[in-house]
Amino acid sequence: MLFSSLLFLSIFLPAVLLVYYSVSPKSRNSVLLVASLIFYGWGEPRLLAVMLLFILANYATALLVESAGSPAGRRFFLILGLLADFSVLGYFKYADFFIENINRMTGCSFELLHIVLPLGISFYTFQAVSYLIDVYRKEVCAEKNIAALALFITFFPQLIAGPIIKYHEIADQFKERTESLDGVYNGLSRFILGLTKKVLIANIVADYADQVYALSAADVSCPDAWLGAVAYAFQIYFDFSGYSDMAIGLGMMFGFRIPENFNFPYISKTITEFWRRWHISLSTWFREYLYFPLGGSRCSRLRSCCNLLIVFAATGIWHGASWTFVIWGLWHGFFIVVERIFDLHKKSFVWPVRILMHVVTLLIVLIGWVFFRIDDLPAALDFVRKMVLFRDPGELTVVPSALTLTVLAIAVLCSTELVAKLRQLMLKWKYGQLILRGMDVMFLVLVMLRLVASSYNPFIYFRF
Prior knowledge:
Largest sheet: none
Oligomer: single chain
Mean pLDDT: 90
Radius of gyration: 23 Å
């Protein structure tokens, strides 16, 4: 079930809100748990049993970790739990990838398993792992109420595509939180913002990006490659940040404070800054549960750089079972290492240099997105060659419509802090709040009309 589907908007969400606020506060977590299981089971009914077994295994493991009488025992049960969680993720997400590479290297012809990937498995696996490690570190107590743990893992606002919530960030909110009419309104406003990003920006530029990336290497001209890369860059940003906005807004409606996941990443002047602004929940997860345990920056510079490359290789493979994802991760990791060696992420520069660094950062990100979008390495390299060599530039094979160009221009503005600052200024004005509410209604109507008229409504991160 998609947040941007008519079923969710017109039936599921209103029904859940109505039931949630009709019952006593003590029963509201139960309402959310049932709603979350229905939400997940709607798209993955065959794999709901896997989810329930996954919850049970993590519930039991955390209790064993907490009750173990010695550090060695705690460590043993933690490792057992981590192996179980990552084995589930590895089987569903990487088994066929492993078989393909074995066949390629050995000349064998083992049959692929063609396993159906459960929705959001990368996200809820990382959440479960954070829970086990938090219990092991004694930052939280093991949850004795299995329903509470089940709600943490299945919480429908962020179940499918994040943000990734670490258990210690939200554990207290499952026990006590503040719900109010203002929270519902503010959450609805944030939800509409994300819905607008998704339907009125991401979906429109996605249609053009898909046409360009569907071309054969011979048909892609240099202008096609650049405009297609730009369109995809805005598609993935407004698609994913839109989902995060909707998740945060839904959380607010039910009294939860879900961490921010994006902070205008395309205004970054370095790749280090980009990753402080892009998919923040994933970056902080890897920093807290992988980079720091490896030694972080507390060791030698060489070891620290190796740690960064390991983290970004893991970031790449987390996104998908393809070598192009690994290359995408290492591509970013390489430039972060360069910035770390020369301390570029710490220095301040005069404005002409800052502009140049901003342009270079955007070019690095754009080229990286090609490897993220194309899962065939030779095809991805051909696409990048068309971008960077400028040989026989030719003309546009896929000519963008006036609507596409208009939305791309709007996307450029909305990817900066300009619109957010204008909104803050309006809130200080006497009638600003009333105008913003009117704009929310207007955008919601436009979104609904667009959804009725179009069947093109994917979410990029659903496949991760």
